[in-house]
Amino acid sequence: CSPATAKRTITALRDYLGAPLVYDRERQGYHYDEQGEALYELPGLWFNDSELYALLVSHRLLTAIQPGLLEPQLRPLRRRIESLLEHRHLGHPELEKRIRILQTASRPTDLDRFRMVATALLRRRRLHVLYHGRARDATTERDISPQRLVYYRDNWYLDAWCHKRRALRSFSVDRLHPVYIDETPAREVPDERLEALLERSYGIFAGPPRHTAVLHFTADAARWVADEQWHPKQQGRVLEDGGYELKVPYGDPTELVMEILRYGPEVEVIAPDALREEVRRRLEDALVRYR
Question: What's the predicted TM-score (pTM) here?
């Protein structure tokens, strides 16, 4: 190849791929610096500009969702990506300034505790925990077999087989304390059963769907609700007056009631009667506070 091509190749290897190339005056040529800490090898992955930005955005999302998670492992990768972008004169300072991730009603999760839960989940080991449930304000001792971590509404939950209750349960990770890894192999629950018990109904308080909520939204609210996914199996249709009817399967109404109340006067529960009565009671109780 020509001298110009050779120089461009050397520059690319040294500046773009980080190769430890040094010039030897006696030999009048370049070679790898053998005094480095480790042997150098060409990278096994190649990224274009958009893929590099996508990796940085993914890192940003992970940092916002769970600060500190995998930070020691990901820090070298982040530095390398940033240097590649700088070498291409693309820059990256705008990324931190232009992308904001705002979480609402998120609860802090202890990083060490989260890592322990994730480790047991991936190693397929049981966990011995104390779990403080908010609903009953009681602490119970549990042996659980973790099945999967769920990031739901800005908070982490652990779907697990509870050996105390002999059933699948969802645990709020921030309420697990302390957490110990038991070397006993975790009980495996088939994916089909997980899907059936924990995803067929609305919300994290899933369970088998026993009812279907029929909700009528006003025409003003319909512009937003028609594009929202409350549940994978929901059904919706536009009403004659411009409103929107949404049908949502549910088992436990706890979270569904909270979501309905969020729309205030823009929604009416048509069925079932028990759900309609529960929402009406909540609205009356709220009104009493303002009297």
Answer: 0.65
For 126, phi and psi rounded to 5 degrees? Answer: -75, 160
Inter-axis angle of helices 71-87 and 49-65, to 10 degrees? 150
Tokens coding 128: 């011995």
Burial class (CB in 10 A: 0-12, 13-18, 19+), 5: exposed
Which amino acid type is present at position 206? A
Q: What is the number of alpha carbons within 13 Å of residue 37 lying toward its C-beta?
A: 0
Gyration radius of the chain over CA positions: 27
Separation between Cα atoms, residue 265 and residue 288, nearest integer Å: 17
The three-state (H, E, C) secondary structure of 122-135, written as one string: HHCEEEEEEEEECC
Q: Which residues make beta-bridge pairs with 244? A: 217, 238
Q: Using alpha carbons, select from 186, 201, 36, 52 the residue that is nearest to residue 121.
A: 186
Instruction: Give per-residue pLDDT as tens, 42-101.
Output: 766 666 667 777 777 776 777 777 766 666 767 777 777 777 666 665 555 566 666 677
- C-alpha 189/C-alpha 205 separation (Å) is 18
